[in-house]
């Protein structure tokens, strides 16, 4: 058997394939297109039962009870976070990006987020990707930038550094005005907020190692099984070839004996005639044995004894 580095080729091949598959599976794991902020989960869970979520430690800049009363069942949700600065992002868009994360998880609502970005504690507004839906068949553009600008203009002289509740009040008023103007016979309502999607847990190092080892062992086992199958097939072929050779040789020996049986010498007496009769009888038995069982050991014994008898 040919070897590589002292190991059978099939074993080296199994190791190579196992390592390659391990690399393909674990070296470059697929990355999710969008990983929501860790802040999103508690916010979404809170918004499942109320229109305004207030994080523990949130500053008293928003009157939560008043905000809930003003919003009612409109498709508007509010998240009020504490003063912990959000992770810095390019162009200081951390609060807006968080707002969009929440909007993705509450797709049928308009979202207002009050949080501390890299500059100040303030608000961001964004719209869920499914704000226009069969339950609220509206044109999302009617409630987008124009509505936000109108609300910001209205709250500019009401909201203060210590009271941001007017931002919510003015936004709701602007929302109602736009809804009455565009949809006089229809009032958009808030849908149920689905649970936050579970965050993917990272694979532990031990799990990865065990998975790699298991994969390599499985590949080696497959290669070993294939090697065993190949050996069995080859052995069967060798046995068949040996049996064919033995059959040919046995046939030739029986043909030579047939000459003595079919064309015997003229008997010189009764003993010689009896001997020829015994040879013929033994030949028929050997031929019958060969035709039934092939060139097995018993046939070999009968033919060899018959050859001794013919000498």
UniProtKB/TrEMBL annotation:
Q: Where is this region: Disordered?
A: 291-311
Membrane-crossing segments per the record: 7-26, 208-230
Residue ranges under compositional bias (Basic and acidic residues)? Answer: 301-311
The UniProt keyword set, sorted, is: Membrane, Transmembrane, Transmembrane helix
Stated name of the protein: Uncharacterized protein
Q: What is the lineage of its organism?
A: Bacteria, Bacillati, Actinomycetota, Actinomycetes, Pseudonocardiales
């Amino acid at each position: 058997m040919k070897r590589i580095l002292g190991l059978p080729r099939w074993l080296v091949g199994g190791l190579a394939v196992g390592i390659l598959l391990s690399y393909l599976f674990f070296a470059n794991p697929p990355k999710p297109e969008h990983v929501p902020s860790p802040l999103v989960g508690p916010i979404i869970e809170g918004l499942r039962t109320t229109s305004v979520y207030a994080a523990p430690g949130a500053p008293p800049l928003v009157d939560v009870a008043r905000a809930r009363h003003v919003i009612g069942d409109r498709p508007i949700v509010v998240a009020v976070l504490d003063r912990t600065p959000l992770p810095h992002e390019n162009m200081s868009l951390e609060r807006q990006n968080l707002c969009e994360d929440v909007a993705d998880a509450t797709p049928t609502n308009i979202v207002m987020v009050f949080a501390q970005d890299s500059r100040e504690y303030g608000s961001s507004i964004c719209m869920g990707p499914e704000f226009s839906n069969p339950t609220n068949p509206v044109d999302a553009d009617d409630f987008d930038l124009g509505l936000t600008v109108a609300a910001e203009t209205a709250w500019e002289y009401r909201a203060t550094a210590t009271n941001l509740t007017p931002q919510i009040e003015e936004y709701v008023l602007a929302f109602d005005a736009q809804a009455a103007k565009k949809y006089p016979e229809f009032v958009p309502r808030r849908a149920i907020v689905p649970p936050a999607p579970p965050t993917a847990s990272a694979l532990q190092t031990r799990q990865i190692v065990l998975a790699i080892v298991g994969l390599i062992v499985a590949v080696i086992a497959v290669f070993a099984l294939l090697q065993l199958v190949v050996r069995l097939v080859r052995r069967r072929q060798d046995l068949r070839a040996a049996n064919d050779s033995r059959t040919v040789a046995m046939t030739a020996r029986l043909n030579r004996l047939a000459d003595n049986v079919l064309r015997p010498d003229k008997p010189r007496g009764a003993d010689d005639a009896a001997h020829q009769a015994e040879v013929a009888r033994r030949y028929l038995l050997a031929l019958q044995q060969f035709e039934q069982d092939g060139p097995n050991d018993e046939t070999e014994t009968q033919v060899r004894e018959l050859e001794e008898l013919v000498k």
